[in-house]
Design brief:
285 residues, two-stranded antiparallel ribbon, 14 strands, disordered N terminus
Length: 285
């Protein structure tokens, strides 16, 4: 796997990378996903995955790793190796465009015959997300988000990266109020009343714990150490294609108070069924 050369235009933010998860089969979206990967389904006139690409570009981030498996060639054909927020008038302008994302693909379908699940896919892409030659935050920290979630107003901010990089946490999660399809939620949230930004610790609540739970939005900042011992047993780069879920790693880290979180109340939809997709498109402004 090889990254496209970065833009020569100077950036005002540190070049941490983002990973967009796009390898799933989308079983609940069938028959729509029988011929089209879920990240390419149209939402309000754009492929679903284009929304987070645009948000990352607006935030000043310039490099994305996309993992693919089911019909992954369609995703690579659609977005190629460079995504530009505003179409350039010529090739030189494209090279100098600040709102430009360089995309590389981690092709799990080609390499292993199918998706590696979330933690397995991140572990596979880790050498791309945190290259050995990188220094500072870009060597340790990266965004992770799902290519099938619609959150058009979410802001990928450098301030959030700086705050997380300065902490001792292994992950920072954005939680959302529970949607109808996940009423029980995923994780608890303990907020310091003196924190004006509403940030706190994500909690791994037991089945008898009555405290409120929230749903993980699938948007988060991660530190590479979460995908190494003692949290994760997968070898660097996941050369054997081990399938592994992310939730057990997060819950283990939560038990050691190593995962922070905050509540996001903006527009958010897990586009998991044809009905939700139809509702989104019917409610377009």
């Amino acid at each position: 796997m090889k990254l496209t050369p970065a833009s020569t235009h100077p950036k005002t933010v540190s070049p941490i990378k983002a990973m967009i998860l796009a390898a799933g089969r989308g079983e609940r979206m069938r028959p729509l996903t029988d011929t089209t990967p879920k990240p390419l389904l149209p939402v309000r006139g754009k492929p679903l995955m284009q929304w987070p690409l645009e948000a990352l570009a607006r935030g000043g981030f310039d490099a994305v790793v996309v993992n693919t498996a089911w019909l992954g060639a369609q995703i690579a054909d659609r977005f190629k190796s460079v995504f530009v927020l505003q179409p350039p008038s010529n090739k030189r302008e494209q090279l100098l465009n600040e709102e430009c994302l360089h995309i590389t693909y981690s092709d799990e379908g080609r390499d292993f015959g199918g998706a590696l699940e979330t933690a397995g896919g991140i572990a596979r892409a880790l050498p791309l997300l945190c290259p050995p030659a990188a220094i500072g935050a870009s060597a340790e920290v990266f965004w992770v988000l799902a290519g099938d979630v619609f959150a058009p107003d979410f802001v990928f901010a450098q301030a959030a990266v700086d705050r997380f990089a300065a902490s001792d946490k292994l992950a920072h999660l954005w939680l959302v109020p529970n949607p109808e399809h996940n009423r029980k939620g995923d994780f608890g949230l303990s907020v310091n009343p003196n924190d004006v930004q509403g940030m706190g610790l994500a909690l791994n609540l037991g089945p008898d714990d009555a405290r409120p739970r929230y749903t993980y939005s699938t948007i988060g900042l991660y530190r590479r150490q979460l995908f190494a011992q003692p949290w994760c047993d997968i070898a660097p780069g996941n050369p054997h294609g081990i399938k592994a879920a992310l939730a057990p790693l997060l819950r283990a880290a939560m038990d050691q108070a190593r995962v922070s979180a905050e509540l996001y109340t903006g527009c958010w939809t897990d586009v998991g069924t044809p009905q939700r997709l139809a509702q989104l498109n019917a409610s377009a402004p």
